[in-house]
Amino acid sequence: MTWEAREAFDKMPERNVVSWTAMLRGYVQEGMIGEALSLFRLMQLQGIRPNFPSMISTLSVCGSLATLNHGREVHAQLVRSLFDCDVYVCSVLITMYMKCGDLVNGKRVFDRFTSKDTVMWNSIITGYAQHGLGKEALQVFYDMVSSGVPPDEVTFIGVLSACSYTGRVKEGLQLFESMKSKYLVNPKTEHYSCVVDLLGRAGKLNEAMNLIRDMSVEADACVWGALLGACRIHNRLDMAEVVAKKLLLLEPENTGHYILLSNIYSSQGRWRDVAALRSNMRVQSLSKSPGCSWIEVEKKVHTFTGGDITSHPEHAVILRMVEKLDGLIIEVGYSPDGSFVLHDVEEEEKVHNLRHHSEKLAVAYGILKVPKGMPIRIMKNLRVCGDCHAAIKLIAKVTEREIVLRDANRFHHFKDGSCSCGDYW
Fold it and tell me: From residue 292, how far is each of 58, 305, 307, 381 by CA, in Å?
């Protein structure tokens, strides 16, 4: 248990860089990102000079939490320690910058090296894929092959994801076919999941189902989950119920499957089915993770939870900004989409619920605190909802701000009333 490790760590009469790094790694491995960052700050305050392993661990934390300012600080320390010329370090740096939404610095680190290994190529390809830059990801892939570096399993996850996020069905299928025949890489469930997602997003759900049935390996929850997500996008309730049964057999304790099916039911007004699913979850003691968004301002991470409008010390001014933004975007055509409220409530309450989604609270705080001319960077633990996506496009327009949102699936770059995803997500 990590808390036991921390208790032992706190009781140590003397702590050196090795013990600090071990504790830091423990937090990273357990996904306790906030605790890891706090520990790193404490490490700096106590004058412990980070060594190579601790800086690498911290870069991983910065990428996971999208805390760009901390990541830049660690990069500067790596430069001062002369570690920045290492190929592995540069791969970690590229990943950190890409996960933080800083494409320019990620590409700058990549371009510094003339001799790149597979991991470095994969870092930039995966980064472009996460940002929905399919054309750029494919170009880097072909540059990689031309340079004589053979693609591996991770490479193909990156390029297939890039094709999926940008609707490049033809290119994606061609790459999938070439994996084994041309590049001698055997497709695994992760690759099939990418292709199912590719076909599903494009509305080719029957083809996606046929692909699953013809797979050379057993379909896992990741594959079926990709198809269920496509059923949600295209409102295929008939197929969703079949797929959900498969998923609940494979992962009966994964609340995400229940929630996704519940979302499909609620979008079609099938509230009895929603209630039955939630009752089933309660019987099994399963609970939904709340929507949570966070933003880094002046090296401090501010977290917002959907519906919780009073926990932040500046909640009053944040709410006033939310209401102001709501009025501004209504004037330019915004209309709240109640289909994204997953409860059977009155229309007025639906509008109230939508207004207090975590990403909208984080955007409002960013507009209040982030200086004009600088991008507002937000992270969300779940997929952004369609209503928030439409609202943030208009917020970016009326405030003339660039807003970068990383959700559980990908990045969205909002500017001048449009999103980098082209509404294909």
Answer: 22, 4, 10, 6
Where would I find the H helices in 251-314?
255-267, 271-283
The phi, psi pair for 304, rounded to 5°, reads: -130, 135
What is the Cα–Cα distance from 180 to 261, expressed in whole angstroms?
35
Please write the tens of the pLDDT for every residue from 232-265.
Answer: 889 898 899 899 989 988 998 888 888 888 888 8
Name the phi and psi angles at 310, rounded to 5.
-120, -5
**d(C-alpha 338, C-alpha 354), whole Å:** 8
CA pair distance 85, 70, nearest whole angstrom: 20
**What are 415's strand-pairing partners?**
418
CA-wise closest residue to 247 among 268, 226, 276, 270:
226
Dist. CA 103–CA 128, nearest whole Å: 8
* Rounded (10°) angle between helices 358-369 and 315-331: 100
Q: Are strands 418-419 and 376-380 parallel, antiparallel or unpaired?
A: unpaired
- pTM (predicted TM-score): 0.82
The C-alpha angle with vertex 17 and arms to 48 and 26, in degrees rounded to 5, equals 115
Q: Classify residue 339 by its DSSP letter.
A: G
DSSP, residue by residue, 234-262? HT-HHHHHHHHHHHHHH-TT-HHHHHHHH
Among 34, 32, 54, CA closest to 44 = 54
| Number of Cβ atoms within 10 Å of the Cβ of 13 | 4
Question: For the packed helices 153-165 and 134-146, what is the interaxial angle rounded to 10 degrees?
Answer: 150
Report the run of H or E that residue 412 belongs to, with start and end: strand 411-415
Q: Can you tell me the distance from the alpha carbon of 305 to that of 288, in angstroms, rounded to the nearest whole number?
A: 13
Q: pLDDT tens across 157-215, in order?
A: 999 999 999 999 999 999 999 999 999 999 999 999 999 999 999 999 999 999 999 99
Helix axes 255-267, 271-283, angle to 10 degrees: 160
312 vs 1, 150, 301, 356, 410, CA distance in Å?
29, 50, 12, 13, 27
Residues 6+ apart with CB under 8 A from 159: 125, 129, 137, 138, 141, 151, 172, 175
Residue 85: how many CB atoms within 10 A of its CB? 11
